[in-house]
Design goal:
Amidase signature (AS) enzymes, 11 strands, 486 residues, eleven-stranded mixed beta sheet, alpha/beta, globular
Length: 486
């Protein structure tokens, strides 16, 4: 098996034993990128020289006898929503053309400190607003399983890179499903941690009460290795939680017979493709065979998740994106302007794509005088009810199970003229962000020759439990080992 096809933990074993060097691993991955990137378009920028220099440094440390972490020398791709010092960071938007941050996001810095060479910045939906990576201002990323289909979004570049063998690990962000949905559609594993478990410092904000950074990987063990690097309190982020971080790898015991799972009726009914439902039900049956107790649960407010999300997220986006005004940094119109307001309007009109402009207008309306109470405030109250549904379900269940995506990957352009259908792609993942809980997507089968994902949801800060379930399933099945042919 080629180096670019190995999991992060397999690479770690070979690097630690001295069987291969970090430079050899990085060169093998870049060779794979050179071979397939033209077909996939997963990256917006490659940092080849920097990655090879980081790899050489790791080899020098190892040769000098320094004690290194298990991911030292394992390359990683970074979603272009995370600030990278001196490396262009655009959020796939024209308004940030050429922006080079003066600092690293905390998650990026932790990866650097762990000795992980950075391969480059991955494509995404502009400002993480989308479910297909078709909203990027620069290119459309393609699903490695079928180049005529989307990889999901907004972390579609990261998911496609991992699935195509262009990166063993990648970082993504998840506001309404943007790690889990592309992970499902590309047949890989992806974890959205609890809100506050991983620092958001240096994550360019979409919706600040929903955004969370997490890993995309080839299997759950790789996610656990990554979380050992990423998780923990950060003094730069007031919303990061001071909660003890376990060793996530040690928690992968393979034992699930002591756990009880609930299956929300609302996430297995209307809107779920019948073939996807069959595959997910079979995966749940496999967990039962492993000894897990499973029963159905009702979560009566779940059906309100989509409208609640599309009031709260755009409202927060309208506030967060107000900073892009053509004055301090980013795109500035070259057209003649009459005054500062005309400068703002023209710069933002040229810099923001149509989906971003739409969500800014939705959010501005929801926050406007006379409508705040009727829309935004009411949405926040219903959000509390959704959180209470989860709290009630977790009183008698350790995890909840559902499809990650209601459908398999759809064709590029298929939903471009149907924004409602596009937004329905996140009906299973959005409730998790509203509640702030952790959730994992793992590949659990195929429908129409395309991957299907199983979503495993857990109590706050119990990423170890959901990864234990996901890893036990992967020990008993081989869906996570299947690779697309390119």
């Amino acid at each position: 098996m080629k180096l670019c096809e190995l999991t992060a933990h397999e690479l770690s074993e070979r690097l630690t034993s001295g069987e291969v060097s970090a430079v050899e691993v990085a060169e093998a991955v870049f060779e794979r990128i050179d071979d397939v990137e033209e077909s996939i378009d997963a990256f917006l920028a490659l940092t080849r020289d920097e990655a090879l220099e980081q790899a050489r440094q790791v080899d020098d440390w190892r040769a000098g006898g320094e004690k290194l972490g298990p991911l030292a020398g394992v390359p990683i791709a970074i979603k272009d929503v995370l600030c990278t010092k001196g490396v262009t960071t655009t959020c796939a938007s024209r308004i940030l053309d050429g922006f080079r941050p003066p600092y690293d996001a905390t998650t990026v810095r932790r990866c650097r400190d762990a000795g992980m060479p950075m391969l480059g910045k991955t494509n995404m939906d502009e400002f993480a607003m989308g479910s297909s990576t078709e909203n990027s201002a620069y290119k459309v990323t393609r699903n490695p399983w079928d180049l005529d289909r989307v990889p999901g979004g907004s972390s579609g570049g990261s998911a496609a890179a991992v699935a195509a063998g262009e990166a063993p690990l990648a970082l993504g962000s998840d506001t309404g499903g943007s790690i889990r949905q592309p992970a499902a559609l590309c047949g890989i594993s992806g974890l959205k941690p609890t809100y506050g478990r991983v620092s958001r410092y240096g994550l360019i904000a979409y919706a600040s009460s929903l955004d969370q950074v997490g890993p995309l990987a080839r299997d759950v063990r790789d996610c656990a290795l990554a979380m050992n690097v990423l998780a923990g309190k950060d003094p730069h982020d007031a919303t990061s939680a001071e909660v003890e971080v376990p060793d996530y790898v040690e928690g992968l015991t393979g034992e699930v017979s002591d756990l009880r799972a609930g299956v929300p009726r609302e996430l297995m009914g209307e809107g779920i493709d019948p073939e996807v439902k069959i595959v997910v039900e079979a995966a749940i049956g496999q967990l039962e065979e492993l000894g897990m107790a499973v029963d159905e649960v009702e979560m009566p407010h779940m059906d309100y998740s989509l409208p609640v999300y599309y009031l709260i997220a755009p409202a927060e986006a309208a506030s967060n994106l107000a900073r892009y005004d053509g004055v301090r940094y980013g795109h500035r119109t070259k057209e003649p302007v009459e005054d500062v307001y005309d400068l703002f309007a023209k710069s933002r009109g040229e810099g923001f794509g149509p989906e971003v402009r739409l969500r800014i207008m939705l959010g501005t309306f929801a926050l406007s005088a006379g409508y705040y109470d009727a829309y935004y405030l009411k949405a926040q109250k219903v959000r509390t009810l959704i959180k209470r549904d989860f709290d009630a379900a977790f009183e008698n269940h350790d995890v909840l199970l559902s499809p990650t995506s209601p459908t398999i990957a759809f064709g590029i352009g298929e939903k471009a003229d149907d924004p409602l259908q596009m937004k329905l792609a996140d009906i299973c993942t959005i409730p998790v962000n509203l509640a702030g809980i952790p959730a994992l997507s793992i590949p659990c089968g195929m429908a129409e020759s395309m991957p299907v994902g199983l979503q495993i949801m857990g109590r706050p800060f119990e990423e170890d439990v959901i990864m234990r379930v996901g890893d036990a399933y992967q020990q008993a099945t081989d869906w996570h080992t299947q690779r697309p042919e390119l």
